[in-house]
Design a protein that fits this description.
45% of the residues lie in helices and 21% in strands. The chain is of the alpha/beta class and 287 residues long. It has one domain: 3-Layer(aba) Sandwich (Rossmann fold). The longest helix has 25 residues, at 259-283.
Length: 287
């Protein structure tokens, strides 16, 4: 099924991934970009920043991940980051992407992107992590760090709700929350809780180290006021990956209310990925 949109914008579609329904938005032409959203939201919340990717010359694919936005949940026993990575691999097959994509992940979507790049390296030509979970460290203490597995549920829930309130003061963010987060909570509260339990304890330290050795280009971005993913966690992510992270103004979901700033962050990664894509095409034998 296809819901047509305005040229240059996203078109909303449905497909099948491993025999289960999946909802996604797509639009644009050029460099294939897979955008993976954060917990509690969905693909529609990111319409404004995704349109900026289209304007940068990208063919954007923005699926609602399993248990969000009307996409069916993962099969029993597969509700972990490895299962989400397998789903993302199947989704790329379903929409006909047969070349390495630039993978952009926000929050939980960043962890899914990391696991996709680790488990299916041929799928990923570059990785952009935005306020991503996945680093082992939760917070710095006096002389030592506390691991993400030690983070209490109440602290995670309080931080997420507080950040949501702060971010929601921006009208664009408030609209996105109302459009995606609230329907998700009504439609599938148990699914959201199940994924939240997985996300809050995500530790991809070993996988991040492998990605560093693999040489896949990684851009890491966080925001100065993020209450969900603490600064210590972001710095740990950058340390393991061996990259210099970038801090921008705003809270955890800053890109919803600042799409132009998001586009500015993406320019370098898109330009590098497009150049690599052109180089690969030039090496292909003539048919």
């Amino acid at each position: 099924m296809v819901r047509t949109g305005v040229p240059g914008h996203l078109t909303w579609r449905t497909t099948q991934v491993d025999g289960r329904g999946a909802v996604y938005g797509s639009g644009g032409h050029g460099l294939p970009v897979l955008f993976l959203h954060g917990w509690g939201l969905g693909n529609r919340a990111y319409k404004r920043p995704l349109k900026r990717l289209i304007r940068l010359g990208c063919r954007v694919y923005a699926p609602a991940l399993p248990d969000f936005g009307g996409t069916a949940g993962l099969p029993s026993g597969g509700n972990d980051l490895a299962g989400y990575a397998r789903w993302a691999d199947g989704f790329l097959d379903a929409v006909g992407v047969d070349e390495p994509a630039l993978v952009v992940g926000h929050s939980m979507g960043g962890a899914v992107g990391c696991r996709l790049a680790h488990d299916f390296p041929d799928r990923v030509g570059g990785l952009v992590l935005i306020n991503s979970i996945g680093a082992p460290v939760w917070t710095d203490g006096p002389g030592t760090g506390r691991l993400v597995a030690e983070r209490p549920l109440w602290h995670w829930a309080f931080s997420f709700s507080q950040d949501l309130v702060m971010s929601g003061r921006a009208p664009a963010t408030a609209r996105a929350i109302a459009e995606d987060c609230v329907p998700n909570m009504i439609r599938n509260p148990l699914g959201l809780l199940r994924v939240a339990a997985m996300a809050r304890r995500a530790d991809l330290g070993a996988e991040l180290a492998v990605l560093r050795r693999s040489g896949v280009p990684v851009t890491a971005v966080s925001s100065e006021g993020d209450l969900v993913v603490p600064r210590a966690s972001f710095y740990d992510l950058c340390r393991i990956l061996g990259v210099e992270g970038r801090l921008v103004p705003g809270h955890h979901s800053w890109l919803l209310s600042a799409p132009e700033e998001f586009a500015g962050v993406m320019v370098e990664a898109v330009t590098a990925a497009a150049a690599e894509r052109s180089a690969r095409a030039g090496l292909r034998p003539a048919s």
